[in-house]
């Protein structure tokens, strides 16, 4: 409604995008609806990896800020938090910890160490093969999740996996435009909003919550004016079909997570042997099924992308759990309007939709970030010194 009020008073010669930029620049982040309490979760720095994975999975969130248990009570927010822990960081850190043993080492490695070493080496190189899928069967993850290594390692021990130190945050006085640009142009999936007075996180704004906000604007003049355009009219999907990152159904599921890490994306399609038909979807959030329910792969000789998908769907049906994974991939065509797409993404609670042609062949992928990138644009020199003092990811980090 705030955008609606501002929309009518903007200069008539402005383009719709320029008007939206001006509208969103005039609204402070403090006006954004608070996130549900179940999503504003903090994890203590002395929490074990096993417990952190359980917390993230139980609350159906991808990441959470980490509170330094040793910080003084009167610490500023930048000293109170040490970073944000993510599913992606946890799994990559685990698989990279065990280095190949020295040939001179007199000790023999355990079966778990051997398996971790094998996956570590494979994940660092080219495409993973069938033998790697077999090496990481249910037995591998059962051994890993029951190991003292997994149970005793603390969240603070994987600080090298954090993207910023402690993290990039917004203040309540920042604008919606700043928030939208960070979630689109700067590839952030979520942004904490800090209360400087309380030195704590006041809200967490995610890409999904912004899409939900847009869906609730249905019927308003500004939204209808922008949302009725077809995807093809606004340049979506962004990527050509031959550049889509995908995993074949008979490839190891770890290949999917490896590609997500390497390409810095949140999910990829599972395709059939032709490479043109989408048969499923794997998201970075699905990695928790490898760590929280390894017993479901017990009857599989190898965990391929296809077997992973089948096992997880069976697990969700058995436990009567509602999950985006159970619904599989969601598709649309280029004839969809941006409004129709937003409504579908919001109702299905998913982060991407696959664009197909009339024959059902994969033509593209559209993510929440792609939509936000079409909503606003970054004016020249907009951020100024906004990023000053933000520590980047360490150059030697593998995450």
**The biggest beta sheet, please?**
3 strands, mixed
Which percent range fits the helix content?
Answer: 25-40%
- Broad structural category: alpha/beta
* SSE string: HHEHEHEHHHHHEHEEHHEHEEHHHEHEEH
Shape: globular
Question: Termini distance?
Answer: 40 Å
Radius of gyration, CA atoms, in whole angstroms: 22 Å
Number of helices, where a helix is a run of at least 4 consecutive DSSP H or I residues: 18
The overall strand count is: 12
**Percent strand:** 5-15%
Q: Return residue spans where pLDDT drops below 50 for at least 5 consecutive residues.
A: 98-109, 118-126, 391-399
Mean pLDDT: 80
Strand order of the largest sheet: 1-2-3
Plain-language structure description:
The chain has 399 residues and is of the alpha/beta class. The protein has helices at 2-7, 16-25, 49-58, 77-80, 87-97, 111-124, 130-135, 138-145, 148-152, 176-184, 207-215, 221-227, 253-263, 288-292, 305-318, 324-327, 338-348, 368-373, and strands at residues 43-44, 63-67, 81-86, 170-171, 190-195, 200-206, 247-248, 267-271, 278-283, 331-332, 352-356, 362-367. The chain is globular.
């Amino acid at each position: 409604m705030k955008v609606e009020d501002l929309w009518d008073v903007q200069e008539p010669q402005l383009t719709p995008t320029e008007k939206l930029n001006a509208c969103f620049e005039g609204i402070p982040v403090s006006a954004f609806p608070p996130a549900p309490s179940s999503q504003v979760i903090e994890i203590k720095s002395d929490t074990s990896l096993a417990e952190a994975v359980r917390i993230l999975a139980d609350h159906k969130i991808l990441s959470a800020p980490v509170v330094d248990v040793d910080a003084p009570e009167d610490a500023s927010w930048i000293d109170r938090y040490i970073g944000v822990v993510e599913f992606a960081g946890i799994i990559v850190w685990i698989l990279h910890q065990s280095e190949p043993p020295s040939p001179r080492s007199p000790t023999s490695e355990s079966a778990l160490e051997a398996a971790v070493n094998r996956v570590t080496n494979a994940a660092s190189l080219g495409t993973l093969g069938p033998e790697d899928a077999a090496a990481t069967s249910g037995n591998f993850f059962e051994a890993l999740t029951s190991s003292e290594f997994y149970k005793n390692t603390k969240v603070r021990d994987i600080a090298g996996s954090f993207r910023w130190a402690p993290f990039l945050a917004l203040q309540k006085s920042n604008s919606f435009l700043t928030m939208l640009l960070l979630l689109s142009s700067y590839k952030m999936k979520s942004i904490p909003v800090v209360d400087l007075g309380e030195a704590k996180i006041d809200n967490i704004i995610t890409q999904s919550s912004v899409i939900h906000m847009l869906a609730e604007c249905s019927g308003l003049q500004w939204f209808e004016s922008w949302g009725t355009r077809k995807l093809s009219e606004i340049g979506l999907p962004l990527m050509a079909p031959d550049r889509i990152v995908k995993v074949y159904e008979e490839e190891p599921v770890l290949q999917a997570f490896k590609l997500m890490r390497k390409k810095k994306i949140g999910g990829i399609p599972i395709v059939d042997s032709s490479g043109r038909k989408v048969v499923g979807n794997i998201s970075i959030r699905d990695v928790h099924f490898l760590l929280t329910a390894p017993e479901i792969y017990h009857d599989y000789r190898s965990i391929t992308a296809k077997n992973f998908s089948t096992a997880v769907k069976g697990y969700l049906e058995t436990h009567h759990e509602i999950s985006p994974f159970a619904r599989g991939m969601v598709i649309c065509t280029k004839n969809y309007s941006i409004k129709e797409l937003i409504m579908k993404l919001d109702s299905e609670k998913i982060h991407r939709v696959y664009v197909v042609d009339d024959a059902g062949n994969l033509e593209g992928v559209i993510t929440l970030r792609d939509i936000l990138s079409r909503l606003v644009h970054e004016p020249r020199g907009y951020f100024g010194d906004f990023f000053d003092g933000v520590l980047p990811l360490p150059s030697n980090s593998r995450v």
